Automatic annotation (TrEMBL), chains A, B:
Residues 3-58 form the HTH deoR-type domain. This is DeoR/GlpR family DNA-binding transcription regulator. It comes from Jeotgalibacillus marinus. GO terms for molecular function: DNA binding. Keywords: DNA-binding, Transcription, Transcription regulation. It comes from the Bacteria. InterPro entries: Carb_Metab_HTH_regulators, DeoR-like_C, DeoR_HTH, NagB/RpiA_transferase-like, Tscrpt_reg_HTH_DeoR_CS, WH-like_DNA-bd_sf, WH_DNA-bd_sf. Pfam families: DeoRC, HTH_DeoR.
Amino acid sequence: MTPSQRRKDITSHVHATGKVDIEQLSEMFHVSPMTVRRDLVLLEQDGKLIRTHGGAVSPRSLTLETPFISKETKHVTEKRAISKKAVQMIPEGASILLDSGTTTLELARHLVNRKDLTVITNDINLASEMVNSALHVIVTGGDLQNNVGALLGAQTQEFLRSIHVDRFFLGAHAIDLHAGVTSPTLEKSMVKKLMMEAAEETWLLADSSKIHHKAFSKVCALQDLDGFITDDRVSKEEVRLIEQQVKTFFVEGG
Amino acid sequence: MTPSQRRKDITSHVHATGKVDIEQLSEMFHVSPMTVRRDLVLLEQDGKLIRTHGGAVSPRSLTLETPFISKETKHVTEKRAISKKAVQMIPEGASILLDSGTTTLELARHLVNRKDLTVITNDINLASEMVNSALHVIVTGGDLQNNVGALLGAQTQEFLRSIHVDRFFLGAHAIDLHAGVTSPTLEKSMVKKLMMEAAEETWLLADSSKIHHKAFSKVCALQDLDGFITDDRVSKEEVRLIEQQVKTFFVEGG
DNA sequence: TTCTCCTATGTTAATTTCAAACATTTTATT
DNA sequence: AATAAAATGTTTGAAATTAACATAGGAGAA
């Protein structure tokens, strides 16, 4: 039996049983535990399995048990309706700035059929969505936030200070009718503020579930915005409170 | 902090970084390694993570790796072998610069299990691959090249002039044993040159099919490189010609 | 309050596993 | 046949794991 054949057998055995231990493999293939260990190191590098203490497990066996319902799947119809409305309001030839986030990601998806637009973003997920389009896309650069895709940091800020665009679409995780728009870190709100300064107009995009939440660091008051697009799942009283602060569109969303 | 809250925090931290070690968690939550270990046992039973030797990994981090889908590009096995070799040569704690391209994309995929590395790239596809890792990733910023994913332009160049890294991994489309490394546009070769200047060492990564091709704009001569990793599908005469110009590793790629 | 029980955590020691270095065998190449 | 390269085994010290026991801190009852 060749080493590569043995590794293939180990791989299929791991996938079949979900779990193996080194002692067992050592006996099964009549090789020393050290050799098995070396095989497992190679197979782990290829992503075929995950090494554990004393053995290895199949990555697939556990992924089936933990279905990750990410927040991306929440309020999709609302986000879609909001971003659709936003796209309609972008004139040909405009330069726009897109915040990081799932709502703006939807917006980017709706943008890919447009042309003659310059789109600037600090989110690599948005950039990836637009890479196959005819859009002129500019990425700010900066430190990549793990598991998120946003770019932040001094480099991002420096770039934002050097540009000017027609419109900024702001995403938000927390909106309070009195405290305004807030974000979880100083860093994020700093970048959002700079984006507002770089833009002629700022429009807030957020589904109504974000309302009545407060986070740590203030971005701006609702009065500072030029517009707000959200869905219609808000009470009359809320509508009144919002509309007296900012020009708002309540789109139908689900 | 209650035990259950700590476990939730551990869970989200594992999912955020993809990988944690016990010592690190012990310090982070100010509890003994034994307590962390007990937490990890519970969380593993819930399928929230997979315990490894010395820590735990997120089950999700491995589903994204899926080394089974990338059949679209040519010479996958060669590229994989080349990037594997390259990864082995990166010391812990290093800062590296990754060129845009499919070979460096493979390299990025092999890097996601590493930590304590700073990785700088001008390709959003590479950045996307590394977003769920524990790596410190920095994106250069610049104009997005449609259908490619590379970032180029004045902004990219300005950033590259402001940094210094330990090692640069250069990808290439055309290598000639006399003309050296060339690229199709002035813009691209300019960025590559700046990357070389920003790095202590430059290593060329390219499968052997790239040899004996010339493109428009010169990047560098083979002698300017500190190393070259390619596959072994080259003739003896070629080996001789290459080796007298640059330190080279010919990895097995079939 | 004071006592008791129970959970959570820390500590220690013994066991197991891991990883590095070196030695040996096998395989491939010239 | 000679040599190099790859694969495997062995040894050894370091590291992680586990189990067992000890301690601290609440929650609830008398």
